[in-house]
Amino acid sequence: RVHGDGQFGAKMTLLRRFLSSSVAQVVSQPYPHSNFSASLQFTPQVLHGISEILRTRRRLTLKSSSARRASVLIPLCTIEGKPSILFQLRTDKVSSHKGQVSFPGGMDEPQDGGDPIRTALRETEEEMGISSKDILTLGVFDDTVRSNGLFVTPVVGHILQPVNIAEVAFNKEESASVFSLSVHHLLTTNVQWQTFPLPGGKGNTVQIPIFSGGPVPIWGLTARILHTFLTHILLSPDLESIVTSSPRSEPVSSSPLL
Asked: How confident is the model at residue 197 (pLDDT cuts 50, 70, 90)?
C-alpha cells in the first residue's frame, strides 16, 4: 500500500540505473520460512514474543565517545488485516539520502537524554504524525553504522490501532510518500542479493539485500536493518516457541513514554 506523491524525479532514475548496473553476482531467493512465520499475525502473544526476544538476546552495541548517533523506528502495524511494516520515501528536499526508502527516525537531540527510544518515537511523530501514545515499544535492536560513520539504533514498535495508509499524516517536506509491505510478502517473495565490487580494485566486494514490492527498491541501511530484523526476530525459532507456550495476553512495554 502506498500513500503520497508518485513522482520521484531524477533521483529515482539514478537509483534504478545503479541497481541495474553490472554486478559481480545476483542471487534471488526467499527467506527459509516456516508456516508459523509466513502466517503470523501481530497478536498480543506474538508481540510479547518479539518483546521477550529483544529483552533477552545479546544486543550488538556500538560505543564511541565521538560518533554521532541516530535512532529509527521499525514500525510494525496491521493494514487491511495483514501484519505489515511501514516505510517512507524521502523527498529531494532533505539533507541526506534524498529519494531513498527509510524507516522514520533521525538524530539524537538533547531533549532525548541519550535514550534511543525517545529519539525514535519523537522522530516518528514528526515525520509520520503518529503519536508516541499510539505506539507500543517492544524493545531496542542491534546498533548499526551508516556509510558516513553515523551510529544508528533501531527501535521496534507496534502501532496499536490498524493503520489506514491513506490517512497517515506524513511530513511532506521530508517524505514523498509512505508505504507498507506485509510480513508475508517480505518473507515469501524473493530477496535480490547483489554483490558489488568495492572501490580500490583489490577484488573486495560487498553484498547488498534489495527488497522489492514498494514504489522503489529498498536497499542500503534500511535493507540491512530489515534483513537483520527478519532473520533474528521474526524468523527466530524462539518466537514460535514463546508464542505457543506463553499464556500472556499482552506484551510488556519497554518504553518509558507509555
From this structure: confident
